[in-house]
Design a protein that fits this description.
Blueprint: E1 5-10, E2 16-22, E3 29-36, H1 46-57, E4 66-70, H2 76-93, E5 97-100, H3 102-107, E6 118-126, E7 129-137, E8 143-145, E9 150-152, H4 154-160, E10 165-168, H5 170-174, H6 176-179, E11 185-187, H7 197-210, H8 228-236
Parallel strand pairs: 1-4, 4-5, 6-10, 10-11
Antiparallel strand pairs: 1-2, 2-3, 6-7, 7-8, 7-9
């Protein structure tokens, strides 16, 4: 079969997922995917989901070519759990670890947008803020960042939008009423706006082709915003 076999792990939000896929953006094929948003932490079901997608596809650990994982921004706890599992699998199997930016992966939900069209990806960051990243698609339909990911209030973000943009992600669902009706904004349907392991696998396949891997021993999540522990330490120092 054509394309690298990628195990994808997405735990940046409460809606976690695991997938098994082949190829990158150009020749992507989703083999299996398990998506769940239960009232329990990712740590209690993640490895069970991994085992399920492997068995459903009839795949063995030796068959894998890489482990793709969402590295943030997103839930601090969720990102740590997902990355810890991906690192453990990578080290146990000797397969490359591929850290995929969460916002870039979710931008793939809008991959049918016209070349050059601006796509904004929003995750709910709590504290009346969103994690925001903007992208345009290259000719191979890969998301190209426009500036760095940041944490910002929805109101401030709204004031900065001055060209047509499609907004996607859980942050859109949380603040949809604020964005609705703006002349430049198109809101992507909420039921299609969740991060997915399939998107992680798609970008991880492209990264593996380019040799963009992480060292499992030193890989860390990309939080964007400091954690409460870090903020508390800075206030006491």
């Amino acid at each position: 079969m054509d394309g690298f076999l990628i195990l994808g792990i997405e735990t940046a939000t409460s809606c976690g997922s695991v997938s098994l896929s082949r190829g990158g953006i150009e020749n992507f094929r989703l083999l299996t995917e398990c998506i769940a948003e239960p009232d329990i932490t990712h740590s209690r079901r993640l490895m069970g989901s991994v085992q399920w997608v492997m068995e459903a596809a009839g795949a063995r650990w030796d068959d894998l070519d890489g482990i793709g994982v969402s590295i943030g921004p997103g839930s601090f706890t969720g990102l740590r759990i997902g990355l810890a599992a991906a690192k453990a699998i990578s080290m146990a199997t000797g397969k490359p670890l591929l850290g995929v930016p969460t916002l870039a992966a979710l931008a793939l939900a809008c991959s049918g947008a016209d070349h050059g069209h601006l796509v904004g990806v929003l995750l709910d960051a709590r504290k009346k803020e969103v994690y925001a990243g903007f992208f345009r698609f290259d000719r191979d339909m890969g998301p190209v960042p426009v500036g760095a990911a940041r944490v910002i209030s929805p109101g401030e973000l709204l004031q900065q939008i001055d060209e047509p943009v499609t907004l996607v992600g859980p942050g859109v669902r949380a603040y949809g009423e604020l964005f609705a009706g703006h002349a430049h904004i198109t809101l992507f349907p909420g039921f299609l706006s969740q991060p997915r392991a399939a998107y992680i696998g798609m970008l991880a396949g492209r990264m593996l082709i380019k040799g963009i891997c992480m060292d499992p021993a030193t890989a860390a999540p990309f939080y964007v915003r400091a954690s409460e522990a870090e903020l508390s330490l800075s206030r006491t120092s």
